[in-house]
UniProtKB/TrEMBL annotation:
Superkingdom: Bacteria
Annotated protein name in UniProt: Lysophospholipid acyltransferase family protein
Family annotation (PANTHER family): 1-ACYL-SN-GLYCEROL-3-PHOSPHATE ACYLTRANSFERASE (PTHR10434), POSSIBLE ACYLTRANSFERASE (PTHR10434:SF55)
Keyword Iron-sulfur: no
Organism: Nonomuraea recticatena
UniProt KW keywords: Acyltransferase, Transferase
A Pfam entry, by short name: Acyltransferase
CDD domains the record matches: LPLAT_AGPAT-like
């Protein structure tokens, strides 16, 4: 039987699972809800907020336990680090070359994986949030474009707690007291009103805003707080 698209070879998958799952269970307590909303088959875009360098690992554990192997987009620089480059390539990560002529290549590879039935974990913000209160920022339009071009469902997923384990910019985790990693999954984002429209600026920005709003709704539930009326826009600061 052939492997699902985007999945590494079985030895590498086993290697990752053997390391990530015990580490994740050890580092954080789990508050995972509505994982059943993740489609178990077919191409899906998992759109989520970004708080810490630790959240891709913790989210991968959640997604794996709910039936999906996530393809992660990683900085191209990681593919040049000795030893690490072997692992990220073997685990089928997609390199992202920000601010270069190769930047569009990551979306091309993502489209291929989605059409083949893969699950891709996207951070629409493009980086860890710069919002002072850690709410999702204004997103970039790449995810909306990909979803509208392929007809792939966008599943909004919010998480909270990874930043308490490993604050952004720090290399040393805060292990004690043991943190809680909370995850909420929402229903697919309704992008039907954009179908058939030209994929230009205003359409992509509005679709992106809908995706970010759906993520923010899930995060507000986790935090038990009201989100800002207007998302933080680093370009306007």
């Amino acid at each position: 039987m052939s492997r699902r698209p985007g999945r590494p070879s079985r030895p590498w998958e086993t290697f990752a699972v053997v390391i990530v799952k015990p580490l994740s269970w050890l580092l954080v307590k789990k508050d995972w809800r509505r994982g059943e909303l993740l489609p178990r088959t077919g191409g899906i875009i998992i759109a989520t907020n970004h708080l810490s360098w630790a959240d891709p690992v913790l989210l991968s554990h959640f997604l794996y336990n709910n039936g999906r192997w996530p393809t992660i987009l990683a900085k191209a620089a990681l593919f040049r680090v000795p030893l690490l480059k072997v692992a990220v390539r073997a685990l089928q990560a997609i390199p992202v070359s920000r601010g270069t002529s190769e930047a569009a290549r990551s979306l091309e590879i993502s489209e291929q994986r989605l059409r083949a039935g893969g699950a891709i974990l996207f951070y629409p913000e493009g980086t860890v949030t710069r919002d002072p209160a850690l709410w999702p920022m204004v997103g970039k339009t790449g995810v909306a474009r990909l979803a509208l071009e392929t007809g792939t469902p966008v599943i909004p997923v919010a998480h909270w707690g990874a930043h308490e384990l490993l604050p952004y910019g720090q290399k040393k985790p805060r292990l004690l007291p043991r943190k809680t990693f909370s995850v909420r999954v929402g229903p697919p984002v309704d992008l039907s009103k954009y179908e058939g429209q030209p994929l230009r600026g205003s359409v992509l920005r509005e679709a992106t805003a809908d995706i970010m709003a759906a993520i923010t709704v899930q995060l507000a539930e986790i935090r038990g707080e009201k989100a800002p009326e207007t998302p933080y826009d680093p370009a306007g600061r």
